[in-house]
């Protein structure tokens, strides 16, 4: 294994034991998860803390780099001489005034319209989900550790990302998925030439199997033995939000949760920016979002439990369907310690929310995004999020990957012959139908 003389290393989250840099995710002394710890003085030095006005100098230095997540390289566990192949990240942060109008009514809606943002990870990523961020970091380490084969257990998006990035880096890929994933996510893995293994079982069973395989084979499992490095990639969502808000932190973030890693890493990102003096310190509330059919983290928050009670998933939000989330305990802590909350929505509610976001802001998100928007609506209505607070919704994946959940929602129109008169007749019939529907709904036409 090549030697790492890095300014970061693995450290146990509970007992603090240091493990250097190696493909490992659990502390052998106390069986707690490992996390990447950094020498922040060295990062300050790397970024130019010696300048006259270090804050301005570092902000400028970062902002002048190419618009992708590698602009935060010093804050990621990248091996020496790492050369990124795919530009990943720097997705849009957009105001969402029309969504605010539809989530809230009256005066509150006008206020919220000025303060609601979408961090849109449905676009500008190689496989159209935020998982490209984590995989890009994990595979950098996989190469440094000498793996020629990478692998993962996945609820879909990770499968797509590992397959694509492995192809780009010339690595072999083995992808393990529950057999009932959305067809687009299976095809979107196979197309990269990855070996796909469908397992007749839940994600949690797939994941357990992968832990066993990782013991047997010298493979880099991005979310098993490379998990601490993988998880750091999620921080870039937080770095980008802060930079795009003009190097300010928001008041609230609403984040979808599967394994519970992303929400904890956005928190870590904000804390690091504060530590480096790049943003003013301020309290940020973290809100979690899950589907009711798989809501172990949200249930723990609502019942006040510090630990996860595993669930058997039953939801169309497959990308979030992890019944026994690896970082559940830390997600609960992040939510509680920041004064946030967690909500969940039913499958019909998340479908409505997908359509609401699409119709109001022109953003088509997958089921996970429907969960986030649906939960945000609830949090506003519960006054846990106030309209005057700057609130960012983390939209994590593209709707074209889960179109099957909308099958049957829209009727297929009868084709018409290409004649103007035919269209005019068709138009009149359609408008009459719309009017009739409004009358039924009791809306004045
Ligand atoms: C994986 C995933 C998440 C949640 O990620 P965790 O870090 O496991 O909580 C959210 N949204 C989408 C679309 C995902 O694929
Ligand atoms: Zn330990």
The biggest beta sheet is recorded as: 6 strands, mixed
Number of domains: 4
Q: Report the order of strands and helices.
A: EEEHHEHHEHEHEHEHEHHEHEHHEHHEH
Mean pLDDT: 94
CATH fold type of the largest domain: Rossmann fold
**Judging from the principal axes of the Cα atoms, what is the shape?**
globular
The CATH class of the largest domain, by name, is: Alpha Beta
Give the fraction of residues assigned to helices.
40-55%
The small-molecule ligands in this entry are:
pyridoxal-5'-phosphate, zinc ion
> Could you tell me the number of beta strands?
13
Q: Termini distance?
A: 72 Å
Radius of gyration: 23 Å
Strand arrangement in the largest pleated sheet: 4-5-13-10-11-12
Short recap of the structure:
With 445 residues, the chain is an alpha/beta fold.
Structural notes for this entry:
This protein has four domains: 1-38; 93-127 and 234-406, Rossmann fold (3-Layer(aba) Sandwich); 131-231, Rossmann fold (3-Layer(aba) Sandwich), CATH 3.40.50.1100; 413-445, no CATH class. Strand 6 (149-153), helix 6 (157-169) and strand 7 form a beta-alpha-beta unit. Helix 3 packs antiparallel against helix 4 (106-115) and helix 14 (347-361) packs across helix 15. It is an alpha/beta fold and 445 residues long. It contains 16 helices and 13 strands. A six-stranded mixed beta sheet has the order 4-5-13-10-11-12, with helices on both faces. A four-stranded parallel beta sheet has the order 8-7-6-9. Bound molecules: pyridoxal-5'-phosphate (PLP) and zinc ion (ZN).
